[in-house]
């Protein structure tokens, strides 16, 4: 699903950077899970049955833990695969979006593209614990790449700049400025005489300043921003530093706008991806509880009374009249965007909550190239190039690095108006546009392009958007009502968590929901 | 071998941070390789033979390229394995240091420890190219871990602090200070009125400042430094920020001293390690040219005249009188520390160069623990904890993350006086000391410790130190003489490069040396 980064940068573009931070606060997008192991669902459940709607991570983890506690569990899933937004696209895959356009993937064997979640922060303890328990191998995801680019159409004649040069020059210049203010005693109210000495020393170390506290062209700045002439072996050249970009040019370029992402809690190193694609997580759960899932089952109605719940669903393969499944309780993990379009027997507060929250538009574009030219020619291994073009970013694969042959990169990941604009075109035209835009950063694009896939989340029938867009006001009004048990029905998913848009939120939400459901069952 | 980081931090500890930077400049430790593919050694070499001394990376790449060019190649190697300092220790391995103490490794299957080089920067193009050509899989090495610790015995009552909190607080405080100086127009000579606006905006974004340009306890700082109360799912808690550390405490703690390493060119993300251990690189070369290597051959004399070279060596397995091997030329990759102890027929300038450069003392300690408690209990996956204890750092493995069972971490990596002090003890005592010190950061150490291995490079018979310690003065006087062909002899290795201590330096040095040797041969 859409990352917070893209979302926030988009808000920032519209409203300036304070808008960005306010949004971040409002959306509650910050956090380490408070997970302390799977819930202990002790007690006699006396054959109680639960039907789970949706086999995304919330549904799958619910199925796993409820069955373990002794419940009779059935899961209904719209797609023909487990995972929901936890999804990986590979050669041979096919999917159809709203409107009927079907895309067929022709990526080479071993190549893949994660259209939904694609990374797992180190502090998302619940999903990491399940990965460990389910034997899902993880590998580092390269988030920050100092050799990737920062690009603006309006700065440096549209030439992309290496992250390392902008980062070093921004850091060096602000260190020099602060050293100047400090040593001229312009901050004597703020910093004690004793601390001034240490502050200056720290700025010199941290900002690569010379003995006069200047950030200049020398071996110190070179050792941060890289070299104009690279060092060699034997009688080949030694290194020569290049010219730092001046303070004013760095500031006016606005390429500093994305530097903060490196220290953002959810993007800090280390950050992970499953080996082989994000759907390895879904497959790991499905190895345990896949036998409980009825695939191709489109839920059409959720009914409950004092005796139990009745779920109506369409069998998308066999067709025919809607079928029913009955159970004592229902754990519903459908996104609110689709749930709000289904008749649900529930109280007013839950009904209102289901309808209150909107979902963002977002599109991800995966592009296969014949060669990994970004590695062989530009020494970019994983990481992300940021651009003010509508594609917003180019993310290089953190797998298969150094191997010959083709590679698949994320050629665009954008949301909001740009996402609507891109997705208003046919799939081949979206891909062609991503190639056109990306060619302004990588001239090799047109020559090396092979094929592409696009996933506009707002046009995917199961989600109709990427994730729940909470605001502080909406949360105050509806969040508790959304999460509370309503008779025999309880909701779960990233939308019912304080970690919206993250798989961790989906898992924590489900564990909390089933704990409360279980408490009701055993104390009934 | 010893990393520059450790070296530099040691120099810094002795002489303050300017000493650190001056050393960095002097040692020429900064660089991207100027590699543009293997050299084209065209022309008829008419059966010319080359004997190569040392099967480290310089020797191996020399053997590979010279044989490809048609030379008759023989390699003599002291050890019973290829790679030299490119070495990985696993369960079952044994080695003996000077003085005769032998260590036997009892690590579990799949666990390893790289006592020499352990990472490959993205800009080391030559070694990356050979890894690609030789089919050596790479994976990311976690250099910076925001959840690892910064530790000082003198700060925070000796309690380790998470990197993310110190990094966020340092960044936040200096952004606030500079915003204050700027908005009070105390830097009007330095920053134009137009740029002031952008600078302030950038500081707010970058430093997590609030609308009044303050760095405070709120969701902005929480989203960098992490949370006091973590966000949950369903009706569990939302997140609450913790208290930032005050400016004065951050400064006095001196924990800012290692923050700059994240943006150091040679430690920037991405940085790599071979899957399975660094010696996969050596083994990759050996698959190609291992048949040319005579192992267990200790070179005792290097002789040359107008007709050719004669190398005397001891067969360490068969024993007996020294053997001789003759060739037209010699590529000598022995470290200067050992080469300077062998009779060499060479001109005065080369003799002087060989004797001029000293090697640093360094020790690395690998510790196996029964469980990966740093992952399961502390959410530390790879990366490095820095401490002012003699062990200097604890580096967590970047492989096998999330797996149950034992793990091997780097429990100490230090040089200079601390290295001499540690290595003056028996191997078991060194390990015990590393466990004692590490327990001040990880209380689980004594309980979970299983076994350890130590490699003091200054006590390893092949190297007598970790890498060549060039200074500007020594380079000016001796470097060209060291690299120039002397009759039929040419030297190569990290010591004959502008990238000392890096495998890239060894490879580039060798490629440059054989290019010049080849030119002499084909134009002779």
How would you describe what is shown here?
The structure is a homodimer of 524-residue chains. By secondary structure, chain A is α+β, with helices and mostly antiparallel strands. Chain A has three domains: 31-81 and 283-358 and 465-523, 3-Layer(bba) Sandwich (FAD/NAD(P)-binding domain); 88-147 and 270-277 and 360-459, Polyamine Oxidase, Chain A, domain 2 (Alpha-Beta Complex), CATH 3.90.660.10; 162-253, de novo design (two linked rop proteins) (Up-down Bundle). Helices cover 34% and strands 19% of the residues of chain A. The first copy, chain A, contains 16 helices and 24 strands. The first copy, chain A, has helices at 4-27, 57-68, 125-133, 163-183, 193-207, 219-225, 247-253, 279-289, 336-339, 348-356, 373-376, 416-423, 427-438, 445-448, 472-483, 503-523; strands at residues 49-53, 72-76, 89-90, 94-96, 102-104, 112-113, 120-121, 138-140, 149-151, 161-162, 227-229, 240-241, 271-274, 293-294, 297-304, 309-315, 323-327, 329-332, 362-369, 384-387, 393-395, 407-415, 449-456, 489-491. In chain A, the strands form eight sheets. A five-stranded parallel beta sheet of chain A has the order 14-2-1-18-24, with helices on one face. In chain A, a hairpin with a 5-residue loop joins β4 (94-96) and β5 (102-104). The longest helix of chain A has 24 residues, at 4-27. At the A-B interface, α1, α3, β8, α4 and α5 of A face α1, α3, β8, α4 and α5 of B.
């Amino acid at each position: 699903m859409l990352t917070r980064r893209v979302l926030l940068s988009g808000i920032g573009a519209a409203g300036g950077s304070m808008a960005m931070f306010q949004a971040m606060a409002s959306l509650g997008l910050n956090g380490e899970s408070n997970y302390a192991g799977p819930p202990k669902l002790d007690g006699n459940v006396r054959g109680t049955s639960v039907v789970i709607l949706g086999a995304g991570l919330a549904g799958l983890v619910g199925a796993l833990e409820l069955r373990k506690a002794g419940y009779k569990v059935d899961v209904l899933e719209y797609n023909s695969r487990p995972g929901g937004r936890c999804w990986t696209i590979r050669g041979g895959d096919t999917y159809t979006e709203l409107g009927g356009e079907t895309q067929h993937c022709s990526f080479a064997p071993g190549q893949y593209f994660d259209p939904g979640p694609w990374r797992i922060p180190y502090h998302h303890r619940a999903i990491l614990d399940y990965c460990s328990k389910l034997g899902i191998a993880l590998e580092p995801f390269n988030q920050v790449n100092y050799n990737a680019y920062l690009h603006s159409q309006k700065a440096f004649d549209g030439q992309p700049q290496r992250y390392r040069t902008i980062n070093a020059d921004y850091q060096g210049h602000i260190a020099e400025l602060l050293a100047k203010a400090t040593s001229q005693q312009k901050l004597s109210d703020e910093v004690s005489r004793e601390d001034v000495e240490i502050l200056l020393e720290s700025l010199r170390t941290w900002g690569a300043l010379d003995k006069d506290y200047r950030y200049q062209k020398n071996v110190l700045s070179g050792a941060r921003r890289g070299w104009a002439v690279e060092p060699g072996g034997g009688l080949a050249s030694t290194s020569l530093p290049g010219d730092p970009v001046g303070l004013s040019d760095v500031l006016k370029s606005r390429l500093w706008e994305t530097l903060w992402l490196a220290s953002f809690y959810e993007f800090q190193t280390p950050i992970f991806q499953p080996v082989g694609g994000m759907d390895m997580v879904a497959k790991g759960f499905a190895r345990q509880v896949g036998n409980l899932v009825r695939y191709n089952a489109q839920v059409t109605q959720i009914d409950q009374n004092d005796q139990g719940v009745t779920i109506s669903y369409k069998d998308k393969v066999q067709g025919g009249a809607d079928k029913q499944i009955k159970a004592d309780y229902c754990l519903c993990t459908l996104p609110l965007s689709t749930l709000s379009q289904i008749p649900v027997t529930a109280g007013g507060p839950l009904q209102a909550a289901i309808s209150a929250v909107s979902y963002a538009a977002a599109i991800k574009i995966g592009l296969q190239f014949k060669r990994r030219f970004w590695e062989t020619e530009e020494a970019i291994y994983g990481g992300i190039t940021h651009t003010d073009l509508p594609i917003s970013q180019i993310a290089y694969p953190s797998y298969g690095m150094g191997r010959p042959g083709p590679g698949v990169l994320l050629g665009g990941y954008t949301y909001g108006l740009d996402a609507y604009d891109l997705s208003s075109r046919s799939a081949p035209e979206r891909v062609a546009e991503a190639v056109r835009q990306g060619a302004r950063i990588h001239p090799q694009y047109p020559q090396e392009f092979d094929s592409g896939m696009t996933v506009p989340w707002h046009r995917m029938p199961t989600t109709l958007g990427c994730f729940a867009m909470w605001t502080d006001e909406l949360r105050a009004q509806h969040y508790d009502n959304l999460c509370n048990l309503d008779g025999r029905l309880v909701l779960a998913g990233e939308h019912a968590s304080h970690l919206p848009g993250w798989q961790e939120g989906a898992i924590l939400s489900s564990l909390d929901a089933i704990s409360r459901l279980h408490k009701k069952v055993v104390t009934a």
